[in-house]
Write a structure and sequence with these properties.
This protein is 29% helix and 18% strand. The chain has 476 residues and is an alpha/beta fold. The chain binds flavin-adenine dinucleotide.
Length: 476
């Protein structure tokens, strides 16, 4: 009998015991606030029930911040990219990733995997299959009873006095809520959507897809595909197309040669995740400028997937200058070279442009961006980095101009666009525990301080006797 293959039932029981030992969940201690006419107010609305949203939710429950709700636009069990738009067979990260365990060994991916499949399977496992990772996240949600409400999308945010009113759309129609703090755990494409370079804007929508779209590669069987980009999403899309019977695939990348490094791999350590946000602006900028400028290589396993296909071709140094459709074919012109195919897949990444993010657009011009407060030295000039949000220590938006939009500090951005302010602690798996801890601590402090007067009054009023008066003998 494999000693670690205890089965999920036993692991679940173990976790319940551990949580009991931690007195989980503690009572809610946050003083409620009411809106006009006594309307109830949510202390926290978490938008996004993927890994980051769930880690934050568990963190809030552990701290006794219980008046929160979690909303996700996706189907139950299909939050995030893993079983929707991700096309890699395995995660890039090594299997020893601990996942959003917030310090509990039994909540790690490894504990779950060993319990379910046993030691031998764990030892034999190379990388984590993408769907297995999603299964782990589903289990995480189930065992911690994360109260995610699915198929609910955040549409708008409006200030209302000291609070925020959020407008959502769910299975029963539109509704709105008053909230004190809003956590946007909305994933990678949520600070401006996907990046659609100007040159491709003339291509009709039925001739192209972005790698962030759900693509039916079966439908593209027998077709000739042009894929733009050299990073993971482009490479995995090319592989998915070939495995689904594409006639041929040409991968076109601007890089002069195939990128081989993933610089950010060297930043996976606690010091970086904990310390990055306290660095001066120029040092933070230099890290990101160098990391992004070096181009992130596709994972080795993704590249190997392509190797067996004779009908796959890589072209480097291709800077597309013109793109159009003629006689049912997509044509791309790049200097002396030209390419034609039936369908175009754009692995062009994500935009950083707050004005393009629907729920943020109303106050986009009031949010402080890096370019509003930092001018980089010439050797590291970078227009795109300037468009990243300049966030405060609790991931909160700051005002571009003091006093013009004080409500912004109630909106906590907990997605990939925080990277320049906080490092990848609210996007990639290795940093998520540190990110969730930082967010939850900051909100606990804020809620306590906001009601400091009430807490002080409670302290004055406290009158539960410790001693009952019968613990000593009266002197005669
Ligand atoms: C293809 C791919 C592969 C990756 N592989 C790795 C890897 O190997 N290792 C690693 O460390 N990281 C990896 N990452 C990066 C990162 O771990 C993932 O992006 C991860 O999913 C981030 O979790 P998240 O909770 O921030 O975002 P997500 O998992 O994307 O969750 C965000 C959720 O927000 C919801 N949402 C968005 N907008 C709204 C709205 N307006 N209203 C309601 N809900 C909304 C979405 O439905 C989604 O479920 C990968 C990313 C991608 C895209």
């Amino acid at each position: 009998m494999d000693p670690e293959k205890i089965g999920l039932e036993a692991l679940d029981a173990q976790i319940h015991r551990e949580l009991r030992f931690l007195n989980y969940p503690p009572d809610n201690w946050v003083k409620p606030v009411a809106g006009g006419g006594g309307e109830p107010v949510l202390d926290v609305a978490i938008i996004g029930g993927g890994m980051c949203g769930m880690a934050a939710a568990f963190g809030f429950m552990r701290e006794g911040i219980r008046n929160f709700r979690v909303f996700d636009a996706g189907e139950d069990g299909f939050e995030g990219p893993w079983c929707t738009t991700a096309r890699m067979k395995t995660l890039r990260s090594p299997k020893h990733l601990t996942g959003p365990n917030l310090g509990l060994p039994s909540l790690t991916f490894q504990a779950w995997y060993r319990a379910k499949w046993g030691d031998a399977d764990w030892n034999a496992l190379g990388y984590i299959p993408t769907e297995t990772w999603m299964d782990y996240l589903r289990w995480y949600r189930h065992i911690l009873e994360i109260p995610t409400e699915n198929n609910v999308r955040l549409l708008r945010i409006k200030p209302e006095g000291e609070l925020l009113r959020v407008y959502l759309c769910g299975p029963e129609g539109d509704f709105d809520l008053l909230v004190r703090s809003l956590v946007l755990a909305t994933g990678r494409a949520a600070f401006g959507g996907t990046r659609l370079p100007e040159v491709f804007r003339n291509v009709p929508a039925n001739y192209y897809a972005h790698t962030e779209d759900v693509i039916d590669f079966n439908r593209l069987s027998g077709k000739r595909l042009l894929v733009i980009g050299g990073a993971a999403s482009a490479v995995d899309s090319a592989a998915a197309a070939l495995e689904n019977g594409a006639a041929d695939v040409h991968l076109l990348m601007r890089a002069p040669e195939i990128p081989r490094l993933n610089k950010f791999k060297s930043t996976v350590y606690a010091g970086y995740f904990r310390g990055f946000s306290s660095l001066d602006d120029e040092t933070r900028w230099r890290f990101l400028h160098h990391g992004l400028g070096s181009r992130v290589a596709a994972p080795r396993l993704s590249m190997l997937r392509l190797k067996e296909f004779d009908n796959f071709h890589i072209h480097t140094g291709v800077d597309v200058k013109d793109a159009y459709v003629k006689e049912g074919q997509v044509h791309l012109a790049a200097g002396q070279e030209s390419f034609a195919g039936d369908f175009l897949v754009l692995g062009t990444g994500y935009a950083i442009d707050i004005r393009q993010q629907p729920e943020l657009a109303d106050f986009a011009d009031k949010v402080r961006l890096w370019r509003d407060c930092f001018t980089p030295p010439e050797d590291v000039a970078n227009e795109e980095l300037g468009r990243f949000p300049y966030l405060g220590p609790a991931f909160e938006f700051l005002e571009k101009e003091g006093g013009t939009a004080p409500y912004l500090n109630r909106i906590h951005l907990f997605n990939a666009a925080t990277t320049l302010s906080h490092a990848a602690v609210s996007s990639d798996i290795p940093g998520v525990n540190i990110g969730a801890e930082r967010l939850v601590n900051a909100l606990a402090v804020q809620f306590f301080k906001e009601a400091a007067g009430q807490h002080l009054q409670n302290f004055y009023d406290y009158s539960d006797p410790e001693l009952l008066g019968d613990e000593w003998r009266e002197e005669e």
